[in-house]
Specification:
It contains two helices and 26 strands. It has 362 residues and is mostly beta strands.
């Protein structure tokens, strides 16, 4: 049986935790990253594992890299919404550009995954999967093997498998030894759904469970048998989900919607803890221009920071104010689920991190 979590009205009445709402820019800190005028659309977004840079893949198959420098304003050298980074490229002027199968770039589906040591990025923009060297931007090799359009890739270093997802709502598990397909399963979709909607995947910190994101659901799957353990479905009147991602400790899920709302979920039970209204991070000049996030990326060391790739080609970094402090204890655990998906230890740079600054309680 799939454990489907309640929508907003049921959620507020069924648990004692208050849904925090952030609606003003004074309630959080946001930073717009330097732009590249050649960008057409942000298709994928990810922090480097070192936490000092953000990598973006655009719809015209070009990669952008923003790097934060260690200086007086930023003693840690890590990504922050307090100091602007540099849009970086090597002295050779080489751009990391993917192989593109479709003649129109906007029709290509982009996906990428970064190696654990930040040395290589595996990336695809509708054509073959490219392997790039992150230091020189040179192409190391191109991989073949997928016959259908792929919209998501995720590696498990523990299980030595690759999970792929496609626009056909299929999940596949591939062995990294020989790249043979081990199993496949269709998504368990409830209510409204678009069969050709992009499906995204990301591994939990324990490397045995993974997050599945579809416009009509957020779900947690077990990898070995591809069993759906938890599922959250938006109400019929709610906007579709555009993207979602785990926080670095996998205790939270940051999710964006096509109405520009951003929600913070507790990963253990998929209850919403915080809702960020567009007016909190979009300037008044564009808040009514149908601008919304298309990508969400979580900082690899600070569970309270995430980045948004917007539909107007810009990238924002968001984090709560330090004055908010750490609030309370973690939400109550669901029976059985805590043992199936243990929380990862906090690895942030500041504070004890036992509770997110994005959530509060009565």
């Amino acid at each position: 049986m799939v454990d489907v979590e309640p929508c907003l009205n049921e959620e507020l009445n069924s648990n004692p935790w208050k849904l925090t709402e952030i609606s003003e820019s004074s309630q959080c800190r946001s930073l717009k990253l330097p732009e590249n005028l050649g960008v057409t659309k942000i298709s994928r977004l990810i922090y480097t594992n070192s936490g000092d840079a953000i990598l973006a893949l655009t719809s015209n198959a070009i990669h952008l890299l923003w790097k934060w420098r260690r200086n007086e304003q930023n003693s840690s050298g890590k990504a922050t919404a307090s100091v602007s980074p540099q849009l970086w490229q090597p002295s050779s002027g080489i751009l990391m550009t993917n192989d593109v199968r479709e003649p129109i770039h906007e029709e290509a589906v982009s996906c990428f995954s970064l190696s654990k040591n930040d040395c290589y990025v595996l990336s695809a923009s509708g054509g073959k999967i490219s392997v790039f060297n992150m230091r020189t931007f040179n192409v190391k090799c191109k991989l073949n093997g997928h016959s259908k359009r792929i919209t998501g890739l995720a590696f498990s270093h523990v299980l030595n498998v690759l999970v792929s997802s496609g626009a056909d709502s299929q999940l596949c598990v591939w062995s990294t030894d020989g790249w043979e397909k081990q199993r496949a399963r269709s998504l368990h979709l409830l209510g409204r759904s678009t069969s050709q909607s992009d499906t995204r995947v990301q591994f939990h910190h324990n490397q045995t469970h993974f997050l599945v994101v579809h416009e009509a659901q957020i779900a947690i799957y077990e990898t070995t048998e591809l069993e759906c353990l938890k599922q959250w479905v938006p109400c019929e009147s709610a906007a579709p989900i555009s993207h979602a991602t785990f926080s670095c400790d996998s205790q939270l899920i940051y999710a964006s919607f096509l109405d520009a709302t951003v929600c913070v979920f507790a990963a253990r039970n998929l209850y919403r803890r915080c809702r960020i209204i567009p007016s909190a991070y979009l300037s008044p000049s564009i808040s009514n221009a149908n601008i919304h996030p298309v990508e969400v990326a979580a900082h690899p060391q600070d569970p309270n920071q995430f980045a948004l790739g917007l539909s107007n080609d810009s990238v924002l970094v968001l984090e709560p104010l330090e004055s908010e402090g750490k609030c309370g204890d973690p939400p109550p655990l669901e029976n059985g689920f805590a043992n199936d998906m243990p929380a990862a230890p906090y690895v942030g740079a500041s504070g004890s991190g036992h509770a997110s600054r994005w959530q509060t309680r009565h």
